[in-house]
Amino acid sequence: MTNIQPMMTDDGTFYWPVRIYYEDTDAGGIVYYANYLKFAERARTEYLRALGLEQNSDLAAEEKIGFAVRHCEIDYQKPAVLDDLLKVSCKISELGGASCTMHQEICRIDGTLLVSLEVKVVCMNLAKLRPIRLPASLVQKVEKYI
Q1: Cβ atoms < 10 Å from Cβ of 44
Q2: In angstroms, rounded to a whole number, what is the distance separating the alpha carbons of residues 71 and 115?
Q3: Of 10, 11, 26, 75, which residue is the catalytic one?
Q4: Residue 58 designated active-site
Q5: What is the dihedral of CA 10, 13, 16, 20, to 10 degrees?
Q6: What's the pLDDT at 56?
Q7: What pTM value is reported for the model?
Q8: In terms of CB atoms within 10 Å, which end of the chain has fewer, N or C?
Q9: 100: CB partners within 8 A, 6+ apart
Q10: How do residues 68-77 score in pLDDT, each as one tens digit?
Q11: Right CATH number for 7-139 from 1.10.20.140, 3.10.50.30, 3.10.129.10, 3.40.50.170?
Q12: Closest Cα partner for 92 from 82, 84, 103?
């Protein structure tokens, strides 16, 4: 069995490992299509954590901001199955004033591409539920990779 560790590469791509469990599969034994969105969300959350930003304590509690998916395009190419070990990548491809677009891929550990996603995330004021500018701390940490 091969294991991978979370990692950030020199170009700013973050990788998060995901193991496929029985609960992730449908009656046919393949990963239920909506679960790929969960895997991608986990990778985005861990990406922020790797950058030194905790969504719950730093952003939500202290700054009263959070992130919401504004748009998502997903392309399913091949299925994952029970016990597969996957790596989910996350890289910011575009920064806006209040949003960022992330390119994500979900691959088997051998590099076989299963799913690709383009996700636009908007920074939100949690009290007003309105878009606000991205935190300067986030912009400073990722703009060098774009």
Answers
A1: 23
A2: 16
A3: 26
A4: no
A5: -130
A6: 63
A7: 0.90
A8: N
A9: 92, 94, 120, 121, 134, 142
A10: 999 999 999 9
A11: 3.10.129.10
A12: 103
On the question of pLDDT at 1 being above 60, the answer is: no
Buried-exposed string 122-144: b where 16+ CB fall within 10 A, e elsewhere: bbbeeeeeebbebeeebeebbee
Give me the mean pLDDT over the 18-29 stretch: 94
By three-state DSSP, how is residue 131 classified? Answer: strand
Asked if 98 contacts 139 with a C-beta cutoff of 8 angstroms, the reply is: no
What percentage of residues in the chain have a pLDDT greater than 70? 92
Q: List, in sequence order, every residue forming a beta bridge with 125; answer none if it has no partner.
A: 65, 130
> Which stretches does DSSP call E strand in 36-112?
65-76, 85-95, 99-108
